[in-house]
Amino acid sequence: MKRSHWSIPYVVFLTIFVVLPLVLVLVYAFQDGNGHFTIANITKFFTDSDALGTFAVSIEVAIENTLICILLGYPAAWILSNKELNRSAVTIILFIMPMWINALMRTLATAELFNMFGITLGKGTLLFGMVYDYLPFMIYPIYNVLNKMDKSYSEAAQDLGATPWEVFWKVTVPLSMPGVSSGILMVFMPTVSTFAISEFLTNNKIKLFGTIIQENINSSMWNYGAALALIMLIIIGITTLFSDDQKETAQGGLI
């Protein structure tokens, strides 16, 4: 048996669960209810004030959530990667442990805590839930990069007279940018496309882009829902390409 034959199960899996769904989204996005080709579903998004407003709110919430995750996640990742400040692997597990629990269960538990303490559900509770759910996705890639960073760069900077603060800002932070870029991608895009967290933590007062996709699909408006999903996929693709360019730039600066 040739080695290439071992790839057949993976090709079949990718075809059924990745390629085929994407093709169906593409086909439905450019069809009307009668199965005829149209671009009306795409153009409708740009003339739909509700969809555009929801998209703007999604971007706003995603930016706020990402910034909070960076502000909280970067120091946490730096402390976890510092052997002098963190001597136990248990601490790392404590940060990753929430990821072992189903996201929907975490969200429902968070909403119940707010209700128990009489806290009004709104944007504040939404951001709290977003940060709680996505903070590990910011910490881990940054920690991974910092942990594998060549310490000789920092030592060389210190030998040249740099202060600890200068070493951090001029050496550690630039070298950790690939991890930050990965963290931003893993937090920003899921925030825009989610719907369960906003539904449970705001009583559906605040709708995100994923919510209007869900509502259209549930209302059997498959074509417009597919068009919205396609727009979301395009945005994700552009963001991913931008993230890859940022990584190459950061790595190129070390040469």
Q: Structural class of the secondary elements?
A: mainly alpha
Name given to the CATH homologous superfamily of the domain at 54-151 and 180-252: MetI-like
Please state the average pLDDT score: 87
CATH class categorisation of the domain at 54-151 and 180-252: Mainly Alpha
Order of helical and strand elements: HHHHHHHHHHHH
What is the percentage of strand-forming residues? under 5%
Largest sheet entry = none
Distance between the termini: 43 Å
CATH-defined fold name of the domain at 54-151 and 180-252: MetI-like fold
Compute the CA-based radius of gyration.
Answer: 22 Å
- CATH architecture title of the domain at 54-151 and 180-252: Orthogonal Bundle
Number of helices: 12
Low-confidence stretches: none
Helix content: over 70%
Task: Say how many strands there are.
Answer: 0
The 3D shape can be described as globular
How does this structure look, described?
- The longest helix is centred in the N-terminal third of the chain and has 33 residues, at about 50-80.
- This protein is mostly helical and about 260 residues long.
- It is built from twelve helices and no strands.
- Helix content is about 75%, strand content about 0%.
- It has a domain at about 55-150 and about 180-250: MetI-like (MetI-like fold, Orthogonal Bundle).
Q: Care to give the gist of this entry?
A:
The chain is mostly helical. It contains 12 helices and no strands. The protein has helices spanning 8-29, 40-47, 49-81, 89-96, 103-116, 123-148, 152-159, 164-175, 177-193, 196-202, 209-218, 222-252.
